[in-house]
Amino acid sequence: MKFVDEYRNAALAKQYARAIAKRVTQPWTIMEICGGQTHSIVKYGIDELLPPEITLIHGPGCPVCVTPIRLIDQAIAIAALPDVIFCSFGDMLRVPGTQKDLLTVKAAGGDVRIVYSPLDCLKLAQANPDKQVVFFAVGFETTAPATAMAAYQAYQQEIENFSMVVSHVLVPPAMEALLSSPDCLVQGFLAAGHVCTVMGYAEYEPIAQKYQVPVIVTGFEPIDILQGIYLCVKQLEARQAFCENQYTRSVQPKGNLTAQQLLQEVFEVVPRQWRGIGEISGSGLGLREKYAKIDALKRFYPLNYSSPESGCSPCISGQIMLGHKKPHDCPAFGTLCKPEHPLGAPMVSSEGACAAYYRYRSQLIAS
């Protein structure tokens, strides 16, 4: 299939791996920021094709994984209320809060539904005027425009029984938080191609210059990722640091200006708590005052719980998302923590590093 098979060509992948091995002269550590890239790396064994000098580490690029426990607890409390239809993408239903998850609420009789677009929630609200329809808005800049469109249409159409719990996060501030840490291991980044399709890559250029790390905008297929790694290694070996676009078939320098205008209309930049990491300034999107009526946390106040972000659990998801550890370094991996009974969000989400290792590497690790 065109645009799929050609980016999964095994012979071409081996050629890129050989080109990387020929170029590299010393150890380098590269972080892929996106969970979708992590799954491709683990699924296709891309890391195993690379020379031993190249270490790939997995970043906090799974928005489900970084959603804070406090917000999940608030969502669970709202979902359990009578006359509420609570809507979410599928991954969020099994992400553990302090005591339970959204799937538990559903099993107890709560009206919790999986949707594929926030716009579906508007149809639900119109079809159920006696119910409060709430959408759990999670994601990076990639999914934020669809959330913004739902908020915009709800405002324009005066749909009074629709609201949302907003937990959108932004990639560049997270990268800066990682790079400014004294424990940072990252020497180069593979940036998420779908985020840059929306936002462009101008925001990454000052990060590359300030911290002297190459930032390669990269796609998600094996050849994309190997090309991205090659470009990153090429810069590292030449002592260069700038933003480069591998994913030219999707990403333009300025991104999608229409989507950006909609984001500006609906959202403002706010601080955001990241599960396992802590608060990162300017790393989230919150509804502007104009759209305050659509803010579910304000509508259902005082459901404003304070939940611990860590405890006695052996889960080390925070260290995994920071790139300090790999999933198989966790003492709970594959034993106390499995997809059916996860201790941490990275074992739940389709973009979580732990889920990728459990699906594609657990038998290899066990042996």
From TrEMBL:
It comes from the Bacteria. Signal peptide: none annotated. GO terms for molecular function: 4 iron, 4 sulfur cluster binding; carbon monoxide binding; iron ion binding. Belongs to the HypD family. This is Hydrogenase expression/formation protein HypD. It comes from Gloeothece verrucosa (strain PCC 7822). Keywords: Iron, Metal-binding. The lineage of its organism: Bacteria, Bacillati, Cyanobacteriota, Cyanophyceae, Oscillatoriophycideae. It holds the Pfam family HypD. GO terms for biological process: protein maturation.
